[in-house]
Amino acid sequence: MNKKKEELILSNTIPWTDSSMQGSRIKSLWLDETEVFVAMMESGTAIPLHDHPGREFTYILEGEMMVDDTLLTAGDFLTAGPGEIHRINIVKPTTCFIITEKSIEFIQEN
Length: 110
Prior knowledge:
Shape: globular
Largest sheet: 9 strands, antiparallel
Structural class: mainly beta
Radius of gyration: 15 Å
């Protein structure tokens, strides 16, 4: 019987890269059908209104962010899926662990 070897990823070997969102950087840990990454966002970073074509799971490791009118802090958890839209504003420097099935889609506001 062939055993499949687990994947061990040493975070200190993966560089931080600028993301498409100004004021944020990511460390990509895994990418196949899902993407797993850590995101660091500076105070004042804004993620405009967006939808989630696939389920997203976000755990706040440190910092503070507003999700619409709700303040999330270290230890809080957010999940969103198709049709669940929101805006995010970073209040204090924030680090999150994120798992997403598909990239978010920005919504044009009129």
